[in-house]
Write a structure and sequence with these properties.
Leucine-rich Repeat Variant; HEAT repeat domain-containing protein; ARM-like; 179 residues; globular; ARM-type_fold; mainly alpha
């Protein structure tokens, strides 16, 4: 590793400051394989701020597809529960076209912040929608709706989710009729 990269990596560990964000921007602009691998390793750092900076940096890297799976693995770790929304924001810089169901689950089962970030990604990213994706999303919705309090908030969410699922179904039907 070059000295500049090594020094920038040091700025991402420990307590965050302005230099940390500058280092993240710098490493994201370099975007080399060594930077991606270093950020993937930092996703397992004991310090949550370091894990956040690693995810943020990965979101800035242009060729970051190798980091998508490790990032989703980080979402599932209980030590990242408190920073999950912050980690999730990094997905803005990723191609998540094959992760509709993963994001849909976070939308349903996540905290308020996580749910809103996942919803924004679902609304603004491109996805590869197939009948299998729709079926899995419907399965998760059925599980969620059978295991949550049926209150006023749920009634509003039900309208939103069912509209989302109906839109996917219509999209697939339109595709099928074109072929």
């Amino acid at each position: 590793m070059t000295i500049e990269i090594t020094n920038a990596l040091k700025e991402l560990t420990g307590e965050l400051n302005d230099k940390s964000f500058n280092a993240s921007n710098y490493l994201g602009s370099i975007g080399s394989e060594e930077v991606v691998n270093a950020m993937i390793a930092l996703l397992n750092d004991p310090n949550p701020e370091t894990r956040f900076m690693a995810a943020r940096t990965l979101g800035l890297v242009e060729n970051n597809s190798a980091a998508l799976s490790p990032l989703f693995e980080a979402f599932d770790k209980k030590e990242n529960k408190e920073i999950l929304g912050d980690l999730l924001m990094s997905l803005e810089g990723f191609d998540v076209s094959n992760n509709y169901v993963d994001l849909f689950k976070l939308y349903l089962f996540g905290s308020f912040k996580v749910s809103k970030i996942a919803e924004d990604l679902l609304d603004h990213k491109e996805f590869n929608i197939t009948p299998r994706v729709l079926k899995k999303a419907q399965k998760h919705w059925a599980h969620y709706s059978n295991n949550v309090k049926q209150d006023e908030a749920f009634a509003l969410q039900k309208i939103e989710v069912e509209q989302r699922l109906n839109d996917l179904k219509s999209f697939l039907e339109n595709l099928e009729s074109e072929n």
